[in-house]
Design a protein that fits this description.
Elements (H helix, E strand, L loop, with lengths): L3 E10 L2 H6 L6 E7 L5 E9 L2 E11 L5 E6 L4 E10 L4 E10 L2 E10 L6 H13 L7 E3 L12
Antiparallel strand pairs: 1-2, 1-8, 1-9, 2-3, 3-4, 4-5, 5-6, 6-7, 7-8
């Protein structure tokens, strides 16, 4: 039910890369499809300078519904991904615990089916991020790029 196209409207994280890059971050698209064995293939497109970068990840389902794991070959990190709440046709709130040898971090994503979400949903994302121990400056509502139309290829 999570499958299909989503826009990433909100991103919150206490990781170092987020602190360094958050002023550059823009809204991007994510396409989720289910594999025959119940895992999720996640293709994220990030606006990067004057081009778009695609990243493919395979989220492996766990015993717990709505919970997935992912190992990043690129960063050597383990991700514990939880779909916290969603109504599938409007928004999804996803929390990820990331562990690697240098320490762990928390990331919260707000996905939306459209480029706009109600203030209540945005407020819920901020509130939930705070409940995960994230500070105000670690919570970001991503700006539109104006490029989103070009990201659909």
């Amino acid at each position: 039910q999570l499958t299909g196209k989503w826009y990433t409207l909100g991103l919150a994280s206490n990781s170092n890369w987020f602190k360094e890059k958050k002023h550059l971050m823009k809204m991007c698209t994510t396409v989720i499809s289910a594999t025959p064995d119940g895992n999720l293939e996640v293709i994220s497109t990030y606006p990067k300078g004057d081009h778009c970068e695609k990243r493919n990840s395979l989220y492996t389902k766990t015993e717990q519904p709505g919970r997935y794991s992912y190992k990043s070959p690129r960063w050597g990190s383990s991700h514990d991904i939880r779909v916290v709440e969603t109504n599938y046709d409007e928004y999804a709130l996803v929390a990820t615990q990331i562990s690697k040898s240098s320490g762990s971090s928390t990331m919260v994503l707000l996905y939306s089916r459209t480029k706009e979400l109600s203030p209540e949903r945005l407020k819920r994302f901020t509130q939930f991020s705070r409940e995960q121990g994230l500070a105000e400056e670690e919570i970001l509502i991503l700006p539109h790029t104006g490029e989103e139309r070009g990201l659909q290829e």
